[in-house]
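Risk register update: the risk of archive-format incompatibility is retired. Evidence:
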Amino acid sequence: MSRRRTSALIISCALLGLVLVGCGATPTQRATGEVVDDSAITSHVTSALSDDPRTKANDIEVQTRSGTVQLNGFVDSTDSKARAAELARNVRGVRKVDNNLLVRVTKSTMGETIDDSVTTTTVKAALIGDPITKARQISVETLHGVVQLSGFVDSEAERAQATVVAKGIAGVHEVRNDLTVKQNH
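Archived output:
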């Protein structure tokens, strides 16, 4: 093999190695394939919930990270909550289901719905204004003054701070912190 050809082969192998390393996951970032897989899992779980007459998919938020599915929001019964978890577990690629669904105690009146919407918006705004919390990673839902925080955050400090921020909002009676700290892979 000529010297020129050997040099070209070495350079090609080095570039291939750099490309492969660039596609891998780091402790704080996920590889492209993981993100695509999680998006596909979220889509399949959402579809399964939508196709099922016993669950109200529009009231259920689905988030996925590294095969762990979070079900967040409010449902009308414990049967709906259990059924949603069952449907999620049956989706290919799901490793774990965190069923954070809360069962509604009673139907809301129009005034309570508006109050809950204002509370949700105020909590979201406070999370955006807080230097520790990354509001784009935190979902907020409110029912009868009970605020549910869900999603995946970077640290236990961020998780705890989100609770502090939400509890500081007028109209919040209780905070249900269902945030999960991301695991480094």
